[in-house]
User: Fold these one by one.
Assistant:
Number 1:
Amino acid sequence: QKEVEQNSGPLSVPEGAIASLNCTYSDRGSQSFFWYRQYSGKSPELIMFIYSNGDKEDGRFTAQLNKASQYVSLLIRDSQPSDSATYLCAVIDNNNDMRFGAGTRLTVKP
Amino acid sequence: DTGVSQDPRHKITKRGQNVTFRCDPISEHNRLYWYRQTLGQGPEFLTYFQNEAQLEKSRLLSDRFSAERPKGSFSTLEIQRTEQGDSAMYLCASSLPGTGTYGYTFGSGTRLTVV
């Protein structure tokens, strides 16, 4: 089992819709969780972090964490074509290393 | 200092040659990480430094790979006797200690192509 798992997609949503991206992790001791956005050929850029159960909102982005289910998600409201990218879920594990999922490719269609 | 800098951006090398990449972290960040990313995959952890000390190495880092951070500032990653399987994007990231909460800042990466 991979340490951090994501659906590879592609996930396609129409402009203005809500995009929902999901991630599960295997290390129950993980404490910090991140969502990075990566455009093709570019490096990852941090868009959200969360470390407490519940929801955390930042503009059009909401991160949701459920440690009991070892599940973290990212919602993007009012999706825009510029949101089209690969979204990487990352977790700080018990060794204090950041582990990444393979990413979910999101396409927002105008 | 506007971010993490990596040099070169692209490197094409023949199989069997040695290559060296450089990373300059954000100046106040004392932690520096190297990751490797292949197409369609997320970044894979290679190694990390706190100041000049290399504190952890992944099993992905074979004997052909060596990383240094001699003065606790910039770091180099050397690959000896390159193989085609080494073709990937090599990403450097930096952070402050205790900022596992806040994530890492990545450089633009060095794309290595071994032909």
Note: Chain B has a mean pLDDT of 91.
Number 2:
Amino acid sequence: KQEVTQIPAALSVPEGENLVLNCSFTDSAIYNLQWFRQDPGKGLTSLLLIQSSQREQTSGRLNASLDKSSGRSTLYIAASQPGDSATYLCAPLLDAGNMLTFGGGTRLMVKP
Amino acid sequence: NAGVTQTPKFRILKIGQSMTLQCTQDMNHNYMYWYRQDPGMGLKLIYYSVGAGITDKGEVPNGYNVSRSTTEDFPLRLELAAPSQTSVYFCASSYSRVFTDTQYFGPGTRLTVL
């Protein structure tokens, strides 16, 4: 059974800092991994999808890396802004199934 | 373009009551999913469907039922509601599970069972 852990669980930083959010998973036989953003009381928005054959994906100030063999992914946020405040969830998709397995998320607060 | 819509947004049930959570998508997606999210936790898959007439259990299916009679709709049925089913329920859809596809999520239904 896939287990997904996200560290830290919560993070509070001043505006402008560069951030690294960590995601680890126990089963490395994944097809892809997604990073989502969830605003309070809202659904999830997909930020980045990284295939198992890729090492990283970039979108604007966001960069996600994947080390499949070690079961790790990181989400790098450059020059953080108050609008980045949200919960960030990672979710790998196993090769052998149709289920995303979600981590517990990192709750980010960026202070002006 | 509405995307994934869910109704109702909020609901309070008494123990033992039943209800149906509605989910509709207008993107002609084959795959649809139901998740639940407990406070401070990640999402857990309840049921999913790979096309009309085909459904399968996810990680936490007990106490729930689904049907998929059309491509657009994927209702989730709660029978004999229990306090353990208090949660936020999210419906999602995707065109397929392969390669570059991503899942699109609805806004959620917040359910309380008292």
Note: The longest strand of chain A covers residues 30-38.
